[in-house]
């Protein structure tokens, strides 16, 4: 049954939720590599009892702990036993509930997922998406919305990020019990399910999986894990449904007077050239211009540093109106900026479309202040003139006294207004001075960075000059054909030694006719000659030639040079080039890279030959084994026949013994009889 909480009960839930949030914050501060789950559990129970509450989970349907401590692939209901130790890089979800006050109190429930020490980028993103999916749900919660609206908000956001939501577990109502109606799945269709009513209190808890969403329960009967053992994250708060929206009850920063969460807001006004920034006060009643950031390589670093330094709780993004040189409507570019911002900051972000986000004040301008003073004094002067023209003395002193009192009152009001406005102007001046100082500091940093980069560039230029000199020296070395040949042979040997076993090749191989090649690859009973040849001169001339016709002539000369190298290898007349080399001369033209690929193929061929030789040897041995088995079978048959003859002789002997036994009986006239032992013949051939 769905329940509606009274205003008095909601106040109790607020108090309990705030206490629970502080307790969980203190527990999370103790999460570190090496800590045991049972230590966190004992600490949480101690804090709950001190706060005047009672652990909601301990003993609930037999659960043994105050906390649910779920690590990595465990999504919820992890048992906090002594053997569960948190390790560096783990992702741990901590779920906690409390009844407050401890006797006849109301229940609140919340959970967070955090990293243990340094965690992977994938884990960070999963935790961030899970948290943001909660706030996507929070946006749609209000009187008249449906349970399906919540599920659809969570599911659509999570799946758009490439993750999945758990289907077999859900959020729930909470308050009088740990679990109440309605169930709040993290998936669904918009407009479906129960209709939300003001006064409902819900536990909204997205449960997100890095892989598939199917779960199974471990042998402890409690811990729910993903079947594919993929990483998981869990984020939960107790939320009150109101006629205007939703209120998080399990939050530390809570203002009991206005019943709204407070904290600093960072206002970001998007522009195509610059990003305007403003920061509110803690009560979110007033904002001050902070600075203007340029979108560059350090933009996100500066934004996140600002969030940390100023302790920003949330961000509001808007589009500027009337800013010179900027767009005044939402464009594809602004959409990309908002999505990028959402993926690069770690706190709640709201987007206000088609309007700039500003914090209005009631401060009049200087012109308005001066005009107000002139109007007041003009009004007083008019009154004095009227009194003077009347010429009436009777009661004139009283009227003048009354006017004087009115003037004093106006004076005090103006004084207060001026002091207030001057105070505001001083704050604005201080903020402006701070902004200018920051800009000056940033400018100095930029100049310093530019100077540093110029120094590095100069050092790089020196290195480039050094490399140029080295290349020139290398070019001089390569001018000599003998040096080029030595270099080619060294490269060839390096490639062969890195790919083939030592026995599969030989350097500087000499044929029977006295001819020598740089290397040969040994393949079974054959050899594959390899020679390192290259026509460097014509190749360089091709590269430097601009005229296309001359370049074609040089290419022909280059091909002729290669043919000569082929002829030197096979010692026959020349013909075409590639076809001639491969089809007629059985020569393959390669570069060091393609040669390495060919050698890999040769290596596989050598291995295949080894396997073939091994197979032949195995076959030979099997044939010998067959011959030995045939001989063994023949001997076993002979042994069986001999054993049959022995058994027959044995049985005949016992028959004769039986006859002797009968003769003995007749002689002794007794009853004694000898029982011969009869052996069975062997069955079949042995």
From TrEMBL:
Gene3D superfamilies linked: Creatinase/methionine aminopeptidase superfamily, YqgF/RNase H-like domain
Protein's recorded name: Methionine aminopeptidase
InterPro entries on file: Creatinase/aminopeptidase-like, DNA_recombination_RmuC, Pept_M24, Pept_M24_MAP, Pept_M24A_MAP1, RNaseH-like_sf, YqgF, YqgF/RNaseH-like_dom
Segments crossing the lipid bilayer: 366-387
Function: Removes the N-terminal methionine from nascent proteins. The N-terminal methionine is often cleaved when the second residue in the primary sequence is small and uncharged (Met-Ala-, Cys, Gly, Pro, Ser, Thr, or Val). Requires deformylation of the N(alpha)-formylated initiator methionine before it can be hydrolyzed.
GO MF: initiator methionyl aminopeptidase activity; metal ion binding; metalloaminopeptidase activity; nuclease activity
Cofactor notes: Binds 2 divalent metal cations per subunit. Has a high-affinity and a low affinity metal-binding site. The true nature of the physiological cofactor is under debate. The enzyme is active with cobalt, zinc, manganese or divalent iron ions. Most likely, methionine aminopeptidases function as mononuclear Fe(2+)-metalloproteases under physiological conditions, and the catalytically relevant metal-binding site has been assigned to the histidine-containing high-affinity site.
Domain YqgF/RNase H-like: 263-359
CDD domains: MetAP1, YqgF
Cofactor(s) in the UniProt record: Co(2+); Zn(2+); Mn(2+); Fe(2+)
GO cellular component, one term: cytosol
Source organism per UniProt: Candidatus Kuenenbacteria bacterium GW2011_GWA2_42_15
Binding locations of substrate: 77, 179
Keywords carried by this UniProt record: Aminopeptidase, Cytoplasm, Hydrolase, Membrane, Metal-binding, Nuclease, Protease, Ribosome biogenesis, Transmembrane, Transmembrane helix
Binding site for a divalent metal cation 1: 95, 109, 236
Stored HAMAP family: MetAP_1
Source lineage: Bacteria, Candidatus Kueneniibacteriota
Any single Pfam family the record assigns to this protein: Peptidase_M24
GO biological process: proteolysis; rRNA processing
Subunit structure: Monomer.
Principal EC category: hydrolase
Protein family membership: Belongs to the peptidase M24A family. Methionine aminopeptidase type 1 subfamily.
Binding site residues for a divalent metal cation 2: 109, 172, 205, 236
EC number, as in UniProt: 3.4.11.18
UniProt catalytic activity: Release of N-terminal amino acids, preferentially methionine, from peptides and arylamides
């Amino acid at each position: 049954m769905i329940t509606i909480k009274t205003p008095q009960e909601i106040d109790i839930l607020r108090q309990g939720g705030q206490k629970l949030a502080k307790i969980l914050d203190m527990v999370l501060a103790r999460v570190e590599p090496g800590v045991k789950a049972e230590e966190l559990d004992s600490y949480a129970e101690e804090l709950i009892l001190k706060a005047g509450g009672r652990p909601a989970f301990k003993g609930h349907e037999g659960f043994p702990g105050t906390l649910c401590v779920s690590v990595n692939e465990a999504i919820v209901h992890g048992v906090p036993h002594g053997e569960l130790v948190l390790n560096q890089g783990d992702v741990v979800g901590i779920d906690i509930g409390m009844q407050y006050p401890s006797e006849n109190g109301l229940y609140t429930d919340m959970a967070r997922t955090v990293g243990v020490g340094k965690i992977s980028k994938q884990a960070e993103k999963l935790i961030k998406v899970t948290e943001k999916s909660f706030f996507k749900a929070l946006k749609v919660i209000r009187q008249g919305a449906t349970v399906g609206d919540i599920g659809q908000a969570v599911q659509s956001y999570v799946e758009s990020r490439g993750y999945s939501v758990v289907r077999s577990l859900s959020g729930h109502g909470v308050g009088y019990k740990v679990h109440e109606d309605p169930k709040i799945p993290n998936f669904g269709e918009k407009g479906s399910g129960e209709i939300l009513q003001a006064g409902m209190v819900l536990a909204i808890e997205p449960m997100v999986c890095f892989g598939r969403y199917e779960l199974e329960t471990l042998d402890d009967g409690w811990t729910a894990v993903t079947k594919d053992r993929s990483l998981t994250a869990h984020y939960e708060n107790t939320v009150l449904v109101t006629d205007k929206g939703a209120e998080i009850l399990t939050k530390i920063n809570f203002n009991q007077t206005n019943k709204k969460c407070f904290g600093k807001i960072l206002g970001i006004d998007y522009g195509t050239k610059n990003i305007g920034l403003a920061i509110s006060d803690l009560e979110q009643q007033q904002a001050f211009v902070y600075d203007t950031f340029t979108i560059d390589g350090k933009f996100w670093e500066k934004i996140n540093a600002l969030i940390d330094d100023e302790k920003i709780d949330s961000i509001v993004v808007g589009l500027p109106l009337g800013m010179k040189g900027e767009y005044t409507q939402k464009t594809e570019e602004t959409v990309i900026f908002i999505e990028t911002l959402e993926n690069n900051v770690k706190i709640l972000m709201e987007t206000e479309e088609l309007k700039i986000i500003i914090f209005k004040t009631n401060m009049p301008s200087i012109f308005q202040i001066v005009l107000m003073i002139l109007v007041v004094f003009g009004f007083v002067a008019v009154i004095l003139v009227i009194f003077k023209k009347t010429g009436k003395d009777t009661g004139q002193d009283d009227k003048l006294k009354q006017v004087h009192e009115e003037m004093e009152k106006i004076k005090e009001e103006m004084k207060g207004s001026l002091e207030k406005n001057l105070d505001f102007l001083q704050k604005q001046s201080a903020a402006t001075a701070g902004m200018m100082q920051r800009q000056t500091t940033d400018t100095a940093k930029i100049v310093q960075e530019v100077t540093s980069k110029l120094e590095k560039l100069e050092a790089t230029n020196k290195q480039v000059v050094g490399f140029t000199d080295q290349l020139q020296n290398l070019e001089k070395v390569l001018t000599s054909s003998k040096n080029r040949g030595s270099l080619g042979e060294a490269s060839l040997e390096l490639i062969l030694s890195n790919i083939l076993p030592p026995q599969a090749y030989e350097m500087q191989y000499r044929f029977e006719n006295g001819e020598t090649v740089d290397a040969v690859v040994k393949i079974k009973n054959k050899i594959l000659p390899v020679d390192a040849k290259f026509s460097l001169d014509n190749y360089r001339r091709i590269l430097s030639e601009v005229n296309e016709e001359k370049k074609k002539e040089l290419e022909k000369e280059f091909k002729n040079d290669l043919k000569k190298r082929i002829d030197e290898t096979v010692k026959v007349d020349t013909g075409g080039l590639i076809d001639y080399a491969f089809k007629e001369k059985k020569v393959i033209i390669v570069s060091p890279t393609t040669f390495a690929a060919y050698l890999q193929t040769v290596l596989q061929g050598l291995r295949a030959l080894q396997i073939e030789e091994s197979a032949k040897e195995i076959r030979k041995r099997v044939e010998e084994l067959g011959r030995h088995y045939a001989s063994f079978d023949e001997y076993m048959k002979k042994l069986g026949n001999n054993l049959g003859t022995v058994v027959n002789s044995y049985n005949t002997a016992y028959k004769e013994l039986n006859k002797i036994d009968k003769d003995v009986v007749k002689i002794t006239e007794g009853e004694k009889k000898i029982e011969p032992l009869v052996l069975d013949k062997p069955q079949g051939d042995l």
